[in-house]
Amino acid sequence: MSNEYTVSSGAPLEDVVQTAYSKATELAFQPNLYFAQFAQGKKWDVRRGDPMPGDTVTFTIYDNLAAATAELSDEYSDITRVPMGETQKSIALKEYGNVVTLTNKLRVLSFDNIDLAAARVVGHNMANSIDLIARASYDTQAGADYVTYAGGGASPGVISPGDTVTAELVRKIYNKLERANVPKLKGGFYVAVMHPDVIFDLRNEGYGTAANAGTWRAPREYTEPGAIFNGEVGEFEGFRIVSTSNARIQAGAGSGSAVDVYTSYFLGYQAVAYAEGLKPDIRITGPFDNLGRTLNVGWYALAGFGELRPEALHKLFSASSLA
Questions:
Q1: Radius of gyration from C-alpha coordinates of the chain
Q2: Domains, the chain, ranges and CATH?
Q3: What is the pTM of this model?
Q4: Residue 84 belongs to what H/E stretch?
Q5: Average pLDDT of 55-83?
Q6: Distance, CA of 173 to CA of 137 (rounded, Å)
Q7: Gap between the Cα atoms of 260 and 122, Å rounded
Q8: pLDDT tens across 229-243, in order?
Q9: 298 neighbors 122 (Cβ within 8 angstroms)
């Protein structure tokens, strides 16, 4: 990484600091995207002359044609034309960001490299924030066709402490996605994003016995290292499992207001959309005071997430033995 205090001839100090911050922030940002990594993106490049998107971005999904199984009548008759259908989804672009301010005194007297520390803190905040914004689009769909409750209930409020995730539930959700003809993601698998507490229950189920036990495979057994998703811990019953503590927990939302309810997300291709006006990036601003004693380090994004294909996302609400 460049030394932010080494300035080439004629180069302002802020330019070198910007380079150091950007590199550190990128390291803190990319590996910490869990939900956001599965969104189908659409972005614009002004240099290519692409039109500006306005405040909403439209995704077009083309409908499949009905199967043509009837024999053509005869060789002289023309075939009847059928129209193509499509569905459009609009994603609103919204501004997001955060900022911290460093003083010159702090930067000079700190025993640590405060510039690098600020870059890492801001980068981690950017990643965590963007990922939670992405997760909110996963949580929006609550239709009965796309939700399963462990224990067989119809709402989070009836989930009891013993209603944990099971291999059977995972298999049923896999069936729901396949039955809806949802295309798979990389390697011919669907993806499941789960909290570590839920993954523990899934791994622990039937431990030492064959009852309800599923088959786990390490990522190295079914994919190349460069194709492993952020947070991926293995493959289970047709799902590539991704572990993140950002998975939603509703504290006390279960039976008797005493059971934490976990949400696990099972998805295929085009479940969620990502619209980008300006990608999340680091911003260095200042100084704005007369003596140049402050420097602002922050991040900014003009982007949005939203549901794309509801049938491509299924959610499982459950308890955990570790809650």
A1: 24
A2: 13-61+88-138+273-307 (3.30.2400.30), 147-271+309-318 (3.30.2320)
A3: 0.83
A4: none
A5: 80
A6: 20
A7: 30
A8: 989 999 999 999 999
A9: yes
